[in-house]
Amino acid sequence: MMNLSDHIKKRMKDHSLMKRNMPIQRDMKTLNKSSLMMNFGSFYLPKMGKSNPMGEDAHFTSKDHQTIGLADGKSRWKKEGTDAGEYARQLMNNCLVVLDAKDREIVYPQLILEEAYLNTKVDGSSTACIITLTGESLNVVNVGDSGFMLFRNGMMVYKSSTQQHGFNYPYQLGKSDHCDDPRVAEEFIIGVRAGDWVVAGTNGLFDNMYASEMEVAMKVIGEAGCLEPQVLAQVLADLAFENSLDYTQGISPYSQAALKEGYPIPIKRGGKPDDITVIVAHIEPTQGHTLVLGNIENSYSFQPYFPKKSPTVNVMDPIVMKRCKPNKKGMKTLNERSLMMNIGSSYIPKKGKSNPKGEDAHFISKHHQTIGLADGVSSWAKKGIDAGEYARQLMDNCLTILYTKYMEIVYPQLVLQEAYSNTEVNGSSTACIITLTDESLNVVNVGDSGFMLFRKGNMIYKSSTQQHRFNSPYQLGKNSHCDDPSVAEEFIIGVRGGDLVVAGTDGLFDNVFASEMEVIIKQIVGTDQPELLAQILAEQALENSLKTEGVSPYSQAASMEGYRRSGGKPDDITVVVAHILPPNHLL
Length: 587
Known about the structure:
Elements: H1 4-13, H2 23-27, E1 36-45, E2 57-62, E3 67-72, H3 84-101, H4 109-119, E4 125-126, E5 128-134, E6 137-143, E7 147-152, E8 155-159, E9 164-166, E10 169-170, E11 173-174, E12 186-191, E13 197-201, H5 203-206, H6 211-223, H7 229-244, H8 253-260, E14 276-285, E15 299-301, E16 340-348, E17 360-365, E18 370-375, H9 387-405, H10 412-422, E19 431-437, E20 440-446, E21 450-455, E22 458-462, E23 467-469, E24 472-473, E25 489-494, E26 500-504, H11 506-509, H12 514-523, H13 530-545, H14 553-560, E27 573-581
Antiparallel strand pairs: 1-14, 2-3, 2-15, 3-5, 4-11, 5-6, 6-12, 7-8, 7-13, 9-10, 13-14, 16-27, 17-18, 18-19, 19-20, 20-25, 21-22, 21-26, 23-24, 26-27
């Protein structure tokens, strides 16, 4: 298998491998040409009482590269006499060195992280998240439970997912045998607008504050006329700090996650004391920007800031401090929606199977503005079991639950949980359910089915893949080697009128690059025929799957894992296309 050093060199030199999948580079504008910029501020509160006053978090901000990064050193290393904070600091410093050492107009966070990891020699391990603004998109690489939220019009519209081996055991970069390397990283892009707010942080923030609390904080600070990145970063850090010491209220994101994993609330009660790093970035138009690039220097921040009350904290409404579950505002009923989905689908089962139905299944509920896909795992065929039956029953159960229990507002994660409980046949499958709730997609996903979001013909977001290893996705089933819905990734992402959602099983995404989809979408733009687009994409995936030579997403992924593959991957192919439109366009 290819070692990491060779892997990195291959990715940096062999750009021909990526030529079929370059929407990211095409959308990436140089800093001088970008229409948007990030104005950011940061704040760091190390955990009180630690023998190491610097704590174990580290971060950097590079305004001239429009890039930020965070790392959270894993504290268990102190049992071996090792300061994991030193690993996190060296990793972040190396990221900044790599940024400055190369003549970079376009920043690729994944390559920055890989090279920085290779140059980090000290013992220890840490999570890592690097975010860069390129044009009108955030390009992100993330390992572990650091991450970010995106806020629009005062509401959270996206939260990055957490990568973890088990509860409180995140993916972590390091050179030890039990650590991970950058190949496990989640890489994605997400579109942004002027006025958006990015709140990035280590788990000291996200374990202690709900998105709803951050929304209230932003509103109250804004009403006080103090809504600046540095102010918001300090206020959020202070609030997370206070919440982390609250053992009386019982519910926090951390205690809620613990309860979900089977730990009783009295054991994992209230907040979680930890180092707290917060970076806040405001997305602003370049024209009229108050920052002057020539006078800006990189800042590498890891010196501790100890708690001190800012005047802005005094304007906070007590409701911010109240422990609460994520709120439900923003989810409007069908009659209140300003956007709706016009949906079409196409399914091509794999040729030559003994089961002509194949092993994929999907449903569409235009009334509930909800779609779902499942891909039965074919390895069950060796045991004489049709995994397609599991996928079909799971999707049928989802549809039954929608029509018997959900009249107005749909919660995909609850639908999937109940459908899973009601699916009794042998087998296993991936699953993805997407519902439109006014101006956001509410998504639950397990495995390697998923979706891409296209805006003006360009891909701006792709859902991540969950897999135990190459070609072994997370899969729902009742067998001991299967997963249950607790592993699902749940998130929301904002959409606009005119956007296109292309959802599919891996039969689509293993065989068609985003750049190929962009070409097809632009050829039929304006036709508003989702059924036709779904059919064309499915046929393109089928054509590519039968090729025995050349590069495909599947062969590219195999190569990155050290396997030699070429051409496509024959499989069942399901495509569901949804065009986001105002309701009057669907009449």
